[in-house]
Amino acid sequence: MPRHPDPELEQRILAAASRLWARGGEKALTMRAIAKAAGTTTPTVYERYRDREDIRRALRLKTRGRLFSTLSTTRSLKAAIQNYLKFALENPHGYEVLFDDVGKPPSLYEPWPSFNLMRERLAERLGGPPRTHNRLMLAIWSLMHGTALLIIRGGFEGPLRTQAIHACVDTAENLIQCAKRRDGVVHSGPNWPASLILGEAEHSRVGNGEKDSKQRSRTAKRQR
């Protein structure tokens, strides 16, 4: 009798890869180990994913989707920030996968739905198009990410963990209130360049002109 494809096999492979990452990080993420943990064979894994980087990309996109679902249930930027931290702290290993070389290809040229959602919420507070708030959104994002990793890797517990979370939420709110006053905002260095676009999939670029264009083209072909 012919063998029927397992509709849940790809999810089993990703679940196995996620467990291996949680236990041993990138070094533990080999195709053979993933196959064994998923209860299948190495050739079968290769039939669905080209290499380890392809699996890491699938993990990133899956985790981004889960994070976006968590944030999309909120109605305010403050609530979104709180949910972001809650998600990161409840899913520490999956969260770390999101930010491994996030500013480099292929991650750079993948969609960042949560970043865009929060930037839209920021625009609702301050007015104007979302892209005009890139710099402030990057600051808030850095604040959230730094807080999450400090708690995760620093082993923050009890009152220290609670204070770190509230300090992050309150500081983000103070940054936004300062931006609303306009005259309270201090700018250093150059303005945000039009050639620097984040989180918008194939439209994303860091400002390297032709090099960026070629890389986006290669990434788009791999995603088809």
Q: Classify the helix fraction into a percent range.
A: 55-70%
Treating each run of at least 4 consecutive H or I residues as one helix, how many helices? 10
Give unreliable regions as ranges.
none
Alpha-beta content class:
mainly alpha
β-strand percent reads: under 5%
- Termini distance? 33 Å
**Biggest pleated sheet:** none
Describe what this molecule looks like in 3D.
This protein has 224 residues and is mostly helical. It has two domains: 1-49, Orthogonal Bundle (Arc Repressor Mutant, subunit A), CATH 1.10.10.60; 55-223. The chain has ten helices and no strands. The longest helix has 24 residues, at 158-181. The mean pLDDT is 87.
Task: Lay out the secondary structure.
Elements (H helix, E strand, L loop, with lengths): L8 H16 L6 H8 L3 H7 L3 H21 L4 H14 L1 H7 L14 H14 L7 H21 L3 H24 L28 H14 L1
Helix pairs in contact: 1-2, 2-3, 4-5, 4-6, 4-7, 5-6, 5-8, 5-9, 8-9
